[in-house]
């Protein structure tokens, strides 16, 4: 058996993204690089300053968002874990929200399902607590633990660190779940916007990593990801932002270029990064990759006025067709822009948000219960 170093009992195998991935078809999009999408990017220190300013605005907006009744829960506890997959070594935090009965799990021996969540914000802003309103429905409707990852963000940590940290978050629960009263056979992933991308790409990264570990004689404990819930995700970086914005049914309601330019310049680095990398653009993964990595149930929500609506819809339709053949639950939410559910309205939750959170958790609960 080949000896592999471990971090907190988890084997560490470093694979560069280019070594792990296969691009489906050689076409012109496979030749696109980050420089094509970003142009001449600002200096990294300028991006850090801009990101810090937008993060402060995001913090204020989320503070208002949380004031609307019914107030969302606070995390029950946190865990700071070390990266094992990324070449960029570091730590990140997991926010744990626990359902009723969790406190007595040590006495009863009960194991709970868990949803591993990834927040939005263009891989540049946001926090693991941003999706606390969704967490409430996971706790109440699925009776599951909600684990939200504060993955390392760009521009400090550009692609593929966020993807690798997200896969590491799942891997941590596979190893440590039983000690945390979590059943590794009943896992799901979820995410919003950039996090919706991570809900898909983290499974690709994890599948590749687990395969390498097993081939090296370091098997991973038994586990099963039952479902992936992806809210208004970005899934295709080979399609230019200008084209996405122009083909939206409401270009005036899409995210402003100032913000998306910051996100892309921060995350898509270095300039030579290939945009058809499946960890970045999962639409460019092969059917074989997607079929091997994705769970049986895939839930995708898109927003009618979002520049990302079309690519999300096309991806959902591809996943439900053979040879991938997943149980896809797709819904386009009419008359709303990107991230409408995070509106900073302190008086009431965003329209439709709670109904759709409840619906999504119904799909997750069905996946947990399926044999």
Automatic annotation (TrEMBL):
Recorded GO terms, molecular function? hydrolase activity
Q: Which organism is it from?
A: Parathielavia hyrcaniae
**Domain Alpha/beta hydrolase fold-3: start-end pairs:** 115-340
Keywords on this record? Hydrolase
Name of the protein this chain belongs to? Alpha/beta-hydrolase
